Amino acid sequence: MNVTVTPAPRSSLNVRVEVPPERLDAAISEAVRHLSQRTKIHGFRPGKAPRAVVERAVGADTVLEEAMDHLVQKAYRDALVEQDILPLTQAEVNVEQGVEGKPVIFTAVVQVRPEVVLGDYRNFNFKPEIEHIDDAKVAKVIEELRDQNATLAPVEDRGARNGDYAVIGYTGTRDGVPFEGGSAERMPLILGEERLIPGFEAHVVGLRPGEKTAFDISFPDDYPEAELAGKPARFEVELRELREKILPAEDDDFARSLGSFDDLKALKVEIKARLERNALDKARHEFADRIIEYATANATVELPDVLVDQEVEIMHDELRGSLARQGIDEASYRKVTGKTESDLHADFKPRAEKRVKVLLVLSKVAEAEGLEIADRDVDAEVARARERYGSDRKTMAYFESDRGRSFIRSTLRRSRLVEKLVDEWLAAHPEHPPLPHLEDDEPGAMSEQGDDEPESALLTPAGSAG
């Protein structure tokens, strides 16, 4: 068998294989035997009918087609092994010659892992940037904590103003006829946040509980419901409830209510210490990101289409998962955004290319640094996954498979590589403050989830997804 390999664009190889004619003869004999076993031929036991009889029963073309199929598949696999080629995906094979008595010739364009040529990834001229924590930043956190611990009190002695919590009822009509989604018995909203169509809430400001108003207003031109976009409507609105936020006093009692703090000063000391720890962690992560960007920018690699396409699909799956967690189905999301699946994939592609290049470059740097991950480390990660996803058989089957373990190994390798580069830079610059690697699993200060709200045609696209 004669195999010729030549480079092709987009990290692929042109593989041309020439198989001696005697191998086709043997493949035809094997095809005759298999077809004879599968075909009921009168007067012959399965597998014993001669070629001429089999060809009369199924056709000569069928015999040759089966022989070529098995011969080309085996020859293709043998050629990959002989040339030490690891394909990224199954190649399409083009048979150029498949005639009895002549060599079988076929070609294939094989996508392979690209060759990464590293540039410099160590001699960068930037350093970690640590955010300075001052009294203003501490005060901002105090205000956020007061806001989170605020109470709501009924308002009866004044009109509604921005920042108040209101419950309204409304009916919307067009040419005197109610329209779908244009009315609600009890719609909660915070005045001034513009959750409804622009200008709507301004008509509520100034009302007292129990008061009503009526006004004309137009839907925005870019409103997602085409039958309402840019169209005028009339609304009758009643303010049914009005409450205002009462913040707790910024004093020692407030500090003690948040935990084991003796006074407000102790709370501020703890907040500043935590902000400083987080600033160090943020500086480390951002420094690591800049090192990755530097290494990637200085490397040369031709990205295979198949890897980019796979990453696009991964990003699409990530979007579906994110939407599902918010209770939004993809069809609704596409309707609001006006995007087709092809549009989404086109949007994903630039980031997918960047992600693929980063992964390839980091893998090459890890190879250059001689960084390997021991089996026991992979086992430990599988064990952690088992604790977290133990009841999810599908997920655990993946992590315990060869493919899943390979993913874990490559992920650990990349993360440890980046930590290694950061630590080595810090060791070479002892004058720089230490940057401990912290994993902050605490929820964010504004991570509370509000109550479910009724659907309404007044909600803007941003509001409806919130």
If you had to describe this structure to a student in words, what would you say it looks like?
Among the domains are: 110 residues, Trigger factor ribosome-binding domain (Alpha-Beta Plaits); 96 residues, Chitinase A, domain 3 (Roll). Helix content is 46%, strand content 17%. It has 13 helices and 9 strands. The strands form 2 sheets. Strands 5, 6, 7, 8 and 9 form a 5-stranded antiparallel sheet that branches. The protein has a 4-stranded antiparallel sheet with strand order 1-2-4-3. Strand 3 and strand 4 form a beta hairpin. Helix 1 crosses helix 2, helix 7 packs across helix 9 and helix 11 packs across helix 12. The longest helix has 35 residues. It is extended, with a radius of gyration of 34 Å. It starts with a strand and ends with a helix.
How do the helices and strands line up, and which of them pair or pack?
Elements: E1 2-8, E2 12-19, H1 21-38, H2 51-58, H3 60-82, E3 93-97, E4 104-111, H4 135-148, E5 151-154, E6 165-174, E7 177-190, E8 212-218, E9 232-246, H5 252-257, H6 264-298, H7 305-325, H8 330-337, H9 341-368, H10 375-389, H11 393-400, H12 402-428, H13 461-464
Helix pairs in contact: 1-2, 1-3, 2-3, 4-6, 6-9, 6-12, 7-9, 9-12, 10-11, 10-12, 11-12
